[in-house]
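This protein record is not my work; I was only asked to verify it. The record follows directly below this note.
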Amino acid sequence: MGLRSRFNLVLTVVFVLGLVVSGFISYDLLIRNAREEIIRSAELMIEAARAIRSYTVQQVRPELSDRLSEVFLPQTVPAYAATETLHRLPEEYNDFVYKEASLNPTNPRNRATDWEADLVHAFENDPELKVLSGERSTPNGTSMYIAAPIRITNEACLSCHSTPDVAPPTLVSQYGDSNGFGWKLNQVVAAQVVSVPTALPLAKAERAFYTFLISLCGVFIVLYVVLNVMLGRMIVKPISDMSGAADEISTGNFEIPEFQGKGKDEIARLAVSFNRMRRSLEQAMKMIE
């Protein structure tokens, strides 16, 4: 096996080992970063929902309260405003699902499922608990979620949720008098839940991972070509020329020109030594003759 072949073999083995190690490390890092990005986006959605709810209670509802005696306007309900607004987010957020899950909702679509009810109970049992996050299995695969409690801190909310007799008649007519009542001040009545399939962060991580691998392979190919060109011009060719010259000299042909040792590297010193050996051998041959 020639010098170039051995060099390329070692270079390839080192690259493959480096690719495998960096692949494992980078994939794990990309997965974790993708998950963290999803959590940050979900947290931002929850904060946006809180802002929408606050805006609805403080500015939208007072302006439309007079009309509630004539017709029920869901736009005055904070949960409706937040949910409808977040459902209109750009396409890149289509996989995010926002829900205000309640054990006793006015609107049936907000009724908590079993796992959402567990979140609400957890917030009820621990007043200091601000956020819950994790993963759960669904028929469509694993899903990530983040949840925050909805606590009644504004007495204005009780005007619709204390008892049916004080609630707007149009609201009772719309949803009935069995659900969404009996709420109390400072009570946890629901949980803001944002869920997203884990396929989304995995897909993002895999795209970034394959881009990284392709880039790494591209860098290796460039380095492979450059190193082989340098190896050929700086090492392989000079040594091959010296080997050919040595063959000629061994047959008594001293007509070949001397090598020009340029620089101070090992090849240049080898060329100087070869020329000195050639001259010594030539003189010895002349003395024998």
Summary: The mean pLDDT is 83. The longest strand covers residues 141-151. The chain has two domains: 3-11+207-288, 12-206. Residues 217 and 223 are 10 Å apart (CA to CA).
